Amino acid sequence: MKKACVIGWPIKHSRSPLIHNYWLDKYGLAGGYEKRAVEPGDLGDFLQNLAGNGYVGCNVTVPHKEGAFALADVTHDEAKAVGAANTLWLDEDGRLHADNTDIYGFMNHLTESAPHWQRPDRPVVVLGAGGAARGIVYGLLKSGVGELRLLNRTRQKAEELAAQLKGTGGAIHVPEWQDRDMALKDAGLLVNATSLGMDGSPPLELSLDALPDDAVVADIVYAPLETDLLAAARAKGCRTVDGLGMLLHQAVPGFERWFGVRPEVSDELRALIVADLTG
Length: 279
Ligand code: ATR
Description:
Elements: E1 2-8, H1 16-26, E2 31-37, H2 43-48, E3 55-60, H3 65-71, E4 74-75, H4 77-82, E5 87-90, E6 96-99, H5 102-113, E7 124-127, H6 131-142, E8 147-151, H7 155-164, E9 171-173, H8 180-183, E10 189-192, E11 216-219, H9 228-235, E12 239-241, H10 243-259, H11 267-278
Helix pairs in contact: 1-10, 5-6, 5-10
Bound molecules: 2'-monophosphoadenosine-5'-diphosphate.
């Protein structure tokens, strides 16, 4: 029986076991997926004993994403691009592979929910320059965005990210965080990749007045499911893309690696996770 797990510290709130066990059950596969709390100092030992503990691979969450990337034997392109991994697997020779499927999760969900998001003449606006924003900016540039406006409270982090990703795709401009309302002018896509608007975090203060009504608005925050940003965008007639879809889609490549079936992100799965989040 194949087994995988998700490791983090803390790990109590991870929804990954619900997602993967739903799929194991749905596809009638003999397997298991569990949570493992791994203290920061124990990551190396844990990964070295992955097979010994009966695992074919694992997901990695905070604070281990960078550590797992550094410890892997083989790192794949998207993990390299962001310097962090969320999905690990062992190959036949026992080598540990690391990839980052958050980018796939975001881009796939975006394209499924709003296929028209990409418009060559319309800039994309991304708010944030943390770990999540890094993957999203990389994914957007790779998929052919011509102009990206990157805004972050700490401007220097946005500038560093822009410098690191220079050459990946189109041009990156870094307006001031306090000019964010005006940065929305003519945009075709707005992405909130900060933690603002999440339960327990400060609100995202942003006026959508300058944003065209036909723009797509995406949020990585999924608690609450409909953030104030998404509600305001919907009220304006904009197409909205929620953060839960990204969470569900990022799980697809790992499941396929470990268990050999490419699973579907269905409405039923979504409803299961929504019930858990809101229950
Ligand atoms: P993650 O890996 O989830 O992206 P992170 O690296 O801590 O987490 O990044 C959090 C993001 O939210 C950053 O862009 C952060 O801005 P700073 O780089 O200036 O810290 C942003 N953020 C968090 N709290 C914020 C606040 N009160 N106002 C503006 N931006 C905030």
